[in-house]
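Give me the fold.
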Amino acid sequence: SSQFVRDDVPRGAEVEGAGANIQFPPYNYTKELVVLSHAIYHYRGLKSCTDVTPIPILPPKVQCHMYERDRQDTQVMVLSHPEKEYVAVVFAGTDDFRNALTDADIITKPFGPMSPNGTYELMP
């Protein structure tokens, strides 16, 4: 099973069913990631991390390492929190019709190692 937090950090709720053990992260981690996901929408007019002001949008002690926005309005930020020891990659979602058209234009390609029978296990 996947684990969101380090072993020395309290875990959130655990749910078992259908043969899978699912672990949810603790509320304080989840809340911080929601704040980060929301923050990227406030940076639409910026060019890089040097333009990103940590206060009041980013949580305290969160550091921005990369911010990019391309001509198709795709936004991404790479952030970290040294004390909580996490790295987050945050993307802007589909928030208008233009983004919906861009998001719909995808190509499915094989990803990951090829299995012995010649297929890709991680193929969407």
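The beta strands are 14-17, 20-23, 63-69, 75-81, 86-91.
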